[in-house]
Design brief:
With 153 residues, this protein is of the alpha+beta class. The chain has a single domain, classed as Thiol Ester Dehydrase, Chain A (Roll), CATH 3.10.129. Helices cover 18% and strands 37% of the residues. It has helices at 3-9, 52-71, and strands at 32-37, 75-85, 94-104, 108-119, 122-138. The chain has a 5-stranded antiparallel β-sheet, covered by helices on one side. It is elongated. It binds coenzyme A (COA). Coenzyme A binds at residues 76-79, 81, 105-108, 135, 137, 139, 143, 145.
Length: 153
C-alpha cells in the first residue's frame, strides 16, 4: 500500500447508523415521481452521512425531467432558487424524488422537487429529507435562450 492510499484509508468513516427522529409524511399527490436512487458508501461525507453535493446533483437531474417535456430539446439549469436540507440522508436509504411544474415562462421553467427517504431498516415509511425549487432554460444550439415550444401538456 502506498503512503498516499494508507493516509486516505484513515479518512474513511463507517456509515452513520444513529437513528434520526423525524415524523413520517404522506407522499405528495400533486407531484410526479421522477427518480428513485439509493446512495452508496462512496457517496458519504466524513460524518458518514450522504454528501450534500451528491444530493444536489441528483436533485438537478430529477428537476430536469418535467421541464424536458416542455423544452423538447437542449436546456440548462439557470438557478437553484431554493434548496433546503431538512433531514440527513443515510447510506442505503431509498430516495424518491417527486416533482411539480410551478411556472412556465417564455424561455424558462421552474420546478419544485421534494425528496422522501425510506430508511434502510424502515421501508414503507417516508421522511421528507430535502426540497428545492430550480429553474431551467430552453437553449438553442448556440447556448442562447429559446422560447419554450410546448407550454401545454
Ligand atoms: C441559462 C442561460 C442560457 C440564460 O441566459 P441569459 O442571457 O442569462 O438569459 P435571460 O436573462 O434572457 O434569462 C432567460 C430566462 O431565465 C430566467 N432567469 C434568469 N435568471 C434567473 C434566476 N436567477 N431565477 C429564475 N429565473 C431566471 C429569466 O427570467 C428568463 O426567463 P423567461 O424567458 O421565461 O422570462 C445562461 O445564463 C447560461 O448559459 N448559464 C449557464 C448554464 C449552465 O451552465 N448551467 C449548468 C450549471 S452547473
Amino acid at each position: 500500500m502506498s503512503h498516499l492510499s494508507r493516509d486516505a484509508s484513515t479518512l474513511l468513516r463507517p456509515p452513520n447508523t444513529a437513528p434520526v427522529i423525524a415524523p413520517p409524511e404522506e407522499l405528495p399527490v400533486d407531484h410526479v415521481l421522477v427518480l428513485k436512487v439509493i446512495p452508496l458508501p462512496g457517496d458519504a461525507n466524513a460524518n458518514g452521512d450522504i454528501f450534500g453535493g451528491w444530493v444536489m446533483a441528483q436533485m438537478d437531474l430529477a428537476g430536469s425531467v418535467l421541464p424536458a417535456r416542455y423544452a423538447q430539446g437542449r436546456m440548462a439549469t439557470v438557478a437553484v432558487n431554493e434548496f433546503i436540507f431538512k433531514q440527513p440522508v443515510r447510506v442505503g436509504d431509498i430516495l424518491s424524488f417527486f416533482a411539480k411544474m410551478e411556472r412556465i415562462g417564455r424561455t424558462s421553467m421552474t420546478v419544485n422537487v421534494g425528496v422522501y427517504a425510506e430508511r434502510f431498516a424502515n421501508q414503507g415509511t417516508y421522511i421528507k429529507v430535502t426540497e428545492a425549487r430550480m429553474t431551467y432554460v430552453a437553449i438553442d444550439d448556440h447556448g442562447r435562450p429559446r422560447p419554450v415550444p410546448n407550454t401545454q401538456i
